[in-house]
Write a structure and sequence with these properties.
The protein contains eleven helices and 21 strands. The chain is an alpha/beta fold. Strand 1, helix 1 and strand 2 form a beta-alpha-beta unit.
């Protein structure tokens, strides 16, 4: 008779948890996954996927205007239907929920519907049932943060609610300076709303390359987005069917909707983690070692609940490493270096590797290659948009330490170059690569003189 009901019990059926569960099962482990909400986690239901669909919808108007103006097309007056977009998006998410259910079933993983809590280092409770397990994996993700000290914060929404608005607001105030705030600012603006974005600091997207974030701010302002840095609400008031924000300089703004995107926090509360001895950081993140193991040897954690590098592909990578370590006799440690990322703003920002300021802290001498230009597609239009590309190079080794881009298809372009950056390619090897002409991406292999 087996010592435990399962070899691995996963709490949370997001991208990381599902990948770990499926892979562990393929190695012969008996695996169960508990999820209290929809399968797929934040990414599928309230994050990456629905957000990117909104990005596609919101970018259409500008692309259409450019085609009509410069490329000879004539079309009728465009009309946007928020309800139809929402219905189509929800149908796709429902399909993906089914895909995740099928993946678990085909892998032989048991799906348990309900909220799971830890009873002891080897026991998990879901409702009235208890399950014993050799290992427990916490993969519960994160949730939006609302600052409770702001009077009237109950009148604000988070990104979770933004996906389920009954109608598109005409006027929106977005609070925050991270990628979620920037993306929703651009989404609402692209769909036709008047948008003001407020951020407490001097420039948004802290942690990204300074040239890239400054360039993006300039491009967003060109599109008519009202960016106000150094300002935040000190209280929020309901006004009729709308809201009013009283700012820290005593000025006021009125809107139909206030979206707070001031960060996310790990979903680790009321799970029994601390009670069984799992160390948690001040923000609730599960503290783990290099192999994703917590302070309790049988309890592991991956993804946003650990607050390491909170990206869906990173959670999947951590899940792959965990399954191999525990059930494939192949110890693997997640590698969080040179992870590419994108901000799906308008225009989008793509990045991989070190920023200029990070490189200057780690390397005695660096070279910077930077180019700003008007893309070929825009030359037949009156668009003033410009693309920025930048390389950060270690002068001694010639290795390209960082690559940054702001412009159309930045995410797609940087994903390809991320392979080169991860592989440690040098600037000389970039120079020796022949570009595809005419493309924007060829600029990365034609920049010859450092600035």
């Amino acid at each position: 008779m087996a010592e435990y009901d399962y070899d691995l019990f996963v709490i949370g059926a997001g991208s990381g948890g599902v990948r770990a569960a499926r892979l562990a099962a393929s190695f012969g482990a008996r695996v169960a996954v508990a999820e209290e909400r929809q399968l797929g986690g934040t990414c599928v239901n309230l994050g990456c996927i629905p957000k990117k669909l909104l990005v596609y919808a919101s970018s259409f108007r500008e692309e259409l205007e450019e085609m009509v103006e410069g490329y000879g097309w004539s079309v009728g007056e465009p009309r946007f239907d928020w309800r139809r977009l929402s219905e189509n998006r929800d149908r796709e998410i429902l399909r993906l929920n089914g895909v995740y259910a099928g993946l678990l079933e085909s892998a032989g993983v048991r799906h348990i519907d309900g909220r799971a809590t830890l009873v002891d280092p080897h026991t998990v409770a879901v409702g009235n049932e208890r399950f014993t397990t050799r290992y427990i994996l916490v993969a519960t993700g994160s949730r939006p943060f609302l600052p409770s000290e702001i009077a009237g914060i109950e009148h604000a929404i988070t990104s979770d609610e933004a996906f389920h608005l009954s109608e598109l607001p005409r006027r929106v105030i977005v609070i925050g300076g991270g990628y979620i705030a920037v993306e929703f600012t651009c989404i609402f603006h692209g769909l036709g709303a008047e948008v003001v974005q407020l951020y407490r600091g001097p420039l948004f997207l802290r942690g990204f390359d300074d040239d890239a974030r400054a360039h993006l701010a300039e491009e967003m302002c060109k599109r008519g987005i009202d960016l106000r840095f150094g300002l935040v609400p000190k209280r929020i008031e309901a006004v009729g069917r709308g809201v009013r924000a009283v700012l820290n300089d005593d000025s006021t703004l009125e809107a139909d909707c206030i979206l707070y995107a001031t960060g996310r926090v790990p979903k680790s509360s009321d799970m029994g983690l601390a009670e069984i001895g799992v160390n948690l950081a001040d923000n609730g993140a599960v503290v783990v070692d290099g192999q994703s193991r917590s302070s309790v040897p049988s309890v592991y954690a991956i993804g946003d609940v650990t607050d390491r590098k909170n990206l869906t592909p990173v959670a999947i990578h951590e899940g792959v490493c965990l399954a191999n370590t525990l059930f494939n006799d192949r110890p693997m440690r997640p590698d969080h270096s040179y992870v590419p990322a994108a901000v799906f703003s308008q225009p989008p920002l793509g990045t991989v590797g070190l920023t200029e300021s990070e490189a200057r802290q780690k390397h005695p001498e660096i070279d910077i290659y930077r180019s700003s230009f008007r893309a070929l597609k825009q030359t037949l239009t009156s668009s003033e948009g410009r693309t920025l590309m930048k390389l950060v190079v270690d002068r001694e080794s010639d290795r390209v330490l960082g690559l940054h881009m702001v412009g159309p298809e930045a995410g797609e372009i940087v994903q390809g170059f991320a392979v080169a950056i991860k592989a440690g390619l040098t600037k000389s090897q970039f120079d020796a690569t022949i570009g595809i002409h005419p493309t924007a991406a060829e600029e990365f292999v034609t920049m010859r003189e450092p600035v």
